[in-house]
Amino acid sequence: MRLVVDLDLCQGHAVCQDEAPALFQVPKTGQVEILRADPGTDLEAARLAVRYCPTQALSLVDDSPEERR
Ligand code: SF4
């Protein structure tokens, strides 16, 4: 799985950072930076961040077959 952000939608609410601080960093004024696109053991926290992002800017995609090996 891989985290993807649509920066056209991100408004810097930082809900994602609250849900998964190991995966996201959001500056006081600005947009999210994904610290680790592959959530690994933080997958559940990543799912919560995707669910609760108020602008639905985040998604989890599974398009990298080599990561499943
Ligand atoms: S919660 Fe959504 S809108 Fe807020 S910083 Fe994270 S990605 Fe951006």
Keywords summarizing the entry:
about 70 residues, alpha+beta, two-stranded antiparallel sheet, two-stranded antiparallel ribbon, binds iron/sulfur cluster
Write up what this structure looks like.
22% of the residues lie in helices and 17% in strands. The protein contains 2 helices and 4 strands. β2 and β3 form a beta hairpin. The relative contact order is 0.32.
The first-to-last residue Cα distance is: 12 Å
Shape: globular
Based on helices, strands and strand pairing, what is the structural class? alpha+beta
Which percent band covers the strand fraction? Answer: 15-25%
Low-confidence stretches: none
Largest sheet: 2 strands, antiparallel
Strand order of the largest sheet: 1-4
**What is the radius of gyration computed over CA atoms, rounded to a whole number of angstroms?**
11 Å
The tally of beta strands, per DSSP, is 4
Map the helices and strands.
Blueprint: E1 2-5, H1 15-19, E2 24-25, E3 33-34, H2 43-52, E4 58-61
Antiparallel strand pairs: 1-4, 2-3
The structure holds iron/sulfur cluster.
Short overview:
With 69 residues, this protein is of the alpha+beta class. It is 22% helix and 17% strand. The site of iron/sulfur cluster has 15 residues, from helix 1.
